Amino acid sequence: MRFSIRTLLIVTLVVAAMIGGGISLKRKLDHGIGLAYASWGCGDLLVDYLEANSNQWPSDWATLERHYEKSKKTYVGIGSFHYLQQEFEIDFDFNPVADSKAWIDNPEPERVVKYRNGSAAYVSGHEANSRVLQYLVDHRGEIQDGG
Questions:
Q1: Which range of residues forms the domain containing residue 81?
Q2: Nearest alpha-carbon partner for 113 in 41, 27, 31, 30
């Protein structure tokens, strides 16, 4: 069985493209899975912040970072605070006391935590916004009373 150089070249290019595509897909899947777990950790960090600060929302990244460093906890999917800042946007203007009723009652509440890359990956029930929302629901009375 003889193959022409042209046939071998085409087969080689097709195989290389398949390998390259497979590697690219694996990287995207790994990153998406990592983001999903980091969202879980981000939600846990924000809930911990709310619990430690009388249900007040962090005012900026520096405030949240001080809490992160002080807490000494390991949050799911967050290897470093820098990773969190790099991958997520947080609405630091959110006010749980003023906004919680509207946020809780809305079937599609405004997202206060978003992926910078627009991804929608999450671990069911553990996405950052659902973690914060569940905290607000569980603590509705004390938050709406301002404490």
A1: 33-144
A2: 41
